[in-house]
Amino acid sequence: MYKLPVSVLVVIHTSVLDVLLLERADHPGYWQSVTGSQHKGETLRQTAQREIQEETGLNPYDYPLSDWETEYRFEIFKEWRWRYSPDITHNTEHVFSLCLPEKKQIVTAPKEHLNYLWLPWNQAADRVFSWSNAEAIRNLPRHLTETDNFSLSPT
């Protein structure tokens, strides 16, 4: 079964804007936030919650999940197009963020990710391989909500 060309990007961060990055198993050295394709019948929020749990072991219901109501449309890398119907060349990615009170131990999905690390948001934006992921991380300070209880310090 082919993947739907609709996905989520979830920037997981702490209250002081340390960002979680995951290293792709199929491309060592490629770092990213939590991502994943929507399953038929899922809402985007459900997709984000499922992907958070699958890729990090975190319970997504324990922390504030914010829908940025932002989407990026981009061409799917040719090496990954086999996952989609032959007529599909582009994907629409919907951005969410999940705020943790502090850095947490992560349990990565072994078939998907090799490792994880926490970096300050500006360094994380420079480390990810995807332009949309980098842009989302750079926009993180503008998407903070009162429920995130941030105590920001200049970086």
UniProtKB/TrEMBL annotation:
Signal peptide start and end residues: none
Organism (species): Nitrosomonas marina
PANTHER family found in the cross-reference section: ADP-RIBOSE PYROPHOSPHATASE (PTHR43736), DIHYDRONEOPTERIN TRIPHOSPHATE DIPHOSPHATASE (PTHR43736:SF1)
GO terms of biological process kind: folic acid biosynthetic process
Binding site for Mg(2+): 51, 55, 112
Cofactor: Mg(2+)
Domain Nudix hydrolase: 1-141
SUPFAM superfamilies per the UniProt record, alphabetical: Nudix
List of residues binding substrate: 3, 24, 35, 74-77, 130
Top-level lineage group: Bacteria
Keywords tagged on the record: Hydrolase, Magnesium, Metal-binding
Record protein name field: Dihydroneopterin triphosphate pyrophosphatase
Keyword check for Nucleotidyltransferase: no
Cofactor note: Binds 1 Mg(2+) ion per subunit.
Entries under Gene3D superfamilies matching the protein: Nucleoside Triphosphate Pyrophosphohydrolase (3.90.79.10)
GO molecular function: dATP diphosphatase activity; dihydroneopterin triphosphate pyrophosphohydrolase activity; metal ion binding
